[in-house]
What we know:
Strand content: 25-35%
CATH architecture of the largest domain: 4-Layer Sandwich
Helix content: 25-40%
Structural class: alpha+beta
CATH superfamily of the largest domain: L-amino peptidase D-ALA esterase/amidase
CATH topology of the largest domain: L-amino peptidase D-ALA esterase/amidase
Amino acid sequence: MAVNLSTPxxxxxxxxxxxRLGVAEAGIRKVNRRxxxxxxxxxxxxxxxxxxxxxxxxxxxxxxxxHLAQSAIRALVINTGVANAGTGESGLANARACCAxxxxxxxxxxxxxxxxxxxxxxxxxxxxxLVAGLPRAxxxxxxxxxxxxxxxIMTTDTLAKAVSRQVQVGGRTVTLTxxxxxxxxxxxxxxxxxxxxxxxxxxxxxxxxxxxxxxxDLSFNSITVDGDTSTNDSFIVIATGKAGNAEITxxxxxxxxxLRDAVIDVSIRLxxxxxxxxxxxxxxxxxxxxxxxxxxxxxxxxxxxxxSPLVKTAFFASDPNLGRILAAIGYAGIDDLxxxxxxxxxxxxxxxxxxxEHGGRAASYVEEAGSRIMKEAELTVRIDLARxxxxxxxxxxxxxxxxxxxxxDYRS
Length: 412
């Protein structure tokens, strides 16, 4: 029951020069479903990544970090169904074995492969099934398989998530295409999600790494579904250099700004798709905090509101019990917040009303207006802290009965 989200049109997903993808049914957890993806990258491609900050990070995350630090990456292998997290030394050995098997198929070094897993935690990865499926995935490698790959990385997602766009950089057409997955256990840093974005721009490794961090901060690290930080979260940005533009080395250049804006745009759309497809979601909510003394305190307030089960269930019921928002703002951790100066608005695409000011309910606010707005599928909570010029936005969704049902039945 995704909120204003539809299945991507395969015709709208542009191939990225230097990238081929192949999928297969490996039976990793369930039969008759695509659950294995191989991505092959052209030689000299540049790759950067951002990963979960969960201290119980999964074996593939640990291996990815190691391989990124020591090798020129030529391939990715992604499985769904089993997360290979909470699996100790055997999990690390299994992740490395998958890399070695992919390397043997493609004629590259094992350290040139990045492994990714998503699914149930605390279960061993069935390496034999994954390895047996690799020849079929490699045989399927093609440039126009983004749609299939978007489906093959899903777990509790109800819809595949993919975005593509083209932009002019240095007089050349640069293509960007990305896919993501995630619906629950979503909260930075990062959310339980996988995100892969490829472009054919030529850009230096240091700039690509900086851009990946910035894009993650403004997108995947600005969403929350349920406040749980997963063990496997990974966001990878690939630049193959096949577009023919002069290599971008200056972050003040017009070429870099054009690429930066496009990467951030695609990242935000992929991240928002995760929230729109949040487990059981019926509402998509933007928590906009402005007037902060710093961006960090704005994010604190936005996350306090976006994480609150009381706020989220009120939005599900379209119940304008908006004192819950004030309570969340109050416990966000800004010790010297002057609530007498704070203002809160509730808005939809067509209407906005002032809810709170001067430390309490706004004199102009009537509950009928709040109830009317809360029936909309897309909502905005705007909060002015009246402390400075900083701002931040977090995207979240409501909590419905289905969230409990989905997570109660997840392993069955």
